[in-house]
Amino acid sequence: MRSLNLHAALIFLTLVSSELTKVSAIRCYDCSDSNPHCRDPFPHKKDYSVLTRDCAHGCIKQTRHEKTTQHIERGCADEDRDQCFWDEPKSGENLHVCYCTTTLCNTGTRPRSRSTYSLVWTAASVLVARLFI
């Protein structure tokens, strides 16, 4: 009976952890460097709620490096991705693009994927299971 309770607890925690990582809408920063609060270094520790919006997929931060300037845009991505990369469009400028899928993740730091949170929940599940053994 105790083994059955342990398995039930593990299944429950696994289901809860998978549901916690699913997000129907993600809140993202939505601004460009024409707004001083959107420039780097990004002052995300303050409450600039006017600079956020709900997005269906993930967030994106694009930094366009031209000869002597850089332009930053933060907003909603059109797909679910956790990835950063450099691109060189035809215009010769360098473009650094970061996609992320957690709330307010497009500050400029490396994105943390949902799988990281799943790993934390799985580890917590194992620790809880050990309490029942």
UniProtKB/TrEMBL annotation:
GO terms for cellular component: membrane raft; plasma membrane. Keywords: Biological rhythms, Cell membrane, Disulfide bond, Glycoprotein, Membrane, Signal. Interacts (via loop 2 of the three-fingered Ly-6 domain) with Sh/shaker; this interaction may stabilize both components of the complex and may be required for targeting or retention of Sh/shaker to neural cell projections. Interacts (via loop 2 of the three-fingered Ly-6 domain) with nAChRalpha3 and potentially other nicotinic acetylcholine receptors; this interaction is required for antagonism of nicotinic acetylcholine receptors. It is a lipid-anchor; GPI-anchor. Transmembrane segments: none annotated. It comes from Lingula anatina. GO terms for biological process: regulation of synaptic transmission, cholinergic; rhythmic process; sleep. Bifunctional regulator of neuronal activity in the mushroom body, and possibly other regions of the brain, that acts as a signaling molecule required for homeostatic regulation of sleep under normal conditions and after sleep deprivation. Reduces neuronal excitability by enhancing Sh/shaker K(+) channel activity; possibly by stabilizing Sh/shaker to increase protein levels, accelerating its activation kinetics, slowing C-type inactivation and enhancing recovery from inactivation. Specifically affects the A-type K(+) current. It holds the Pfam family QVR. The gene is LOC106168363. The keyword Disulfide bond applies. This is UPAR/Ly6 domain-containing protein qvr. It is found in: Cell membrane; Membrane raft. Belongs to the quiver family. The keyword Disulfide bond applies. Residues 1-25 form the signal peptide. InterPro entries: QVR-like, Sleep_regulator.
